[in-house]
């Protein structure tokens, strides 16, 4: 009788230990089902690729609403679905000008569609419409649609693609994040934007000077909306077309925080990036 009781107590003790161990091992996933990847560090965020292996597929130009492009995605199926991001190039440019962003962002746990526009001369509103069409294609039609969480989507773009990003964020408030890069738009007021928006400008941009584009865009977004403005010291209008660690870290952190609701990335947003590469940074700080 004593032996049987001892064995029962031992089994109960083991079961309790395993239950506690499981809870300790994955408390964040229990609280946040969207969290993906290891705890972030400077080394992880600044590396040329993140913790996920990636692959890519081509999107044909015959799709409806935009001009095709390329999709980048994590190859693992063990972590469930991922947030989706559509990115537009700028005036006269093609996706190849920004293509480094595809695998870089995907390797941190996102499905990225880099688009070709219907024509290289498309204006911001058209580019915004095409970004939304690309997201719709990504979640409804693409061969990787089962990998994408349709409730967690974001947009980004360069120059007129950045202006289109603002238009898309204003038009579809269900988006989780927006990142205009050196944005250009004749419309300077975006008081209707409620989507968390990170604007990145170049201090020496002469095509879309920050004083008449990025900064007015940022200030026009209501203070109640989460927003940030990052200005790169001495950067020209074309900074997104070259691999840039500061841009990559900020984009990944913003997307992780707002697409994945992952508060582990707060320290990279508030107080935000600093150092010789940054001439200005403003942020409402995540709420």
UniProtKB/TrEMBL annotation:
Classification via SUPFAM superfamilies: alpha/beta-Hydrolases (SSF53474)
Family designation: Belongs to the AB hydrolase superfamily.
Protein name stated in the entry: Alpha/beta hydrolase family protein
Signal sequence, start to end: 1-30
Alphabetical UniProt keywords: Hydrolase, Signal
PET hydrolase/cutinase-like domain mapped to chain residues: 29-286
Source species taxonomy: Bacteria, Bacillati, Actinomycetota, Actinomycetes, Micromonosporales
Molecular function in Gene Ontology: hydrolase activity
TM spans (from-to): none
Coiled-coil spans in chain: none
């Amino acid at each position: 009788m004593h032996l049987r009781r001892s064995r029962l107590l031992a089994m109960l003790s083991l079961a309790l230990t395993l239950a506690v161990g499981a809870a300790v091992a994955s408390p964040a996933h229990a609280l946040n089902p969207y969290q993906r990847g290891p705890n972030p560090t400077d080394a992880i965020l600044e590396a040329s690729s993140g913790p996920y292996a990636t692959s890519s597929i081509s999107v044909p130009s015959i799709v409806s609403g935009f001009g095709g492009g390329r999709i980048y995605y994590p190859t693992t199926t063990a972590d469930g679905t991922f947030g989706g991001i559509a990115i537009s190039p700028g005036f006269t440019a093609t996706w190849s000008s920004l293509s480094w962003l595809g695998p870089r962002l995907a390797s941190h746990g996102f499905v990225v569609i880099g688009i070709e526009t219907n024509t290289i001369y498309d204006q911001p509103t058209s580019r915004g419409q095409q970004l939304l069409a690309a997201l719709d294609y990504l979640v409804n039609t693409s061969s990787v649609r089962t990998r994408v969480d349709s409730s967690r989507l974001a947009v980004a773009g360069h120059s007129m693609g950045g202006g289109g990003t603002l238009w898309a964020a204003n038009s579809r408030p269900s988006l989780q994040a927006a990142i205009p890069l050196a944005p250009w738009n004749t419309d300077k007021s975006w008081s209707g934007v409620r989507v968390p928006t990170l604007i990145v400008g170049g201090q020496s941009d002469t095509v879309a000077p920050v004083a008449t584009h990025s900064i007015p865009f940022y200030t026009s977004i209501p203070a109640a909306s989460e927003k940030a403005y990052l200005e790169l010291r001495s950067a020209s209008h074309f900074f997104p077309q070259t691999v840039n660690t500061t841009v990559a870290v900020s984009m990944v952190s913003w997307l992780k925080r707002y697409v994945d609701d992952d508060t582990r990335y707060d320290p990279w947003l508030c107080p935000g990036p600093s150092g010789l590469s940054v001439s200005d940074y403003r942020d409402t700080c995540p709420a």
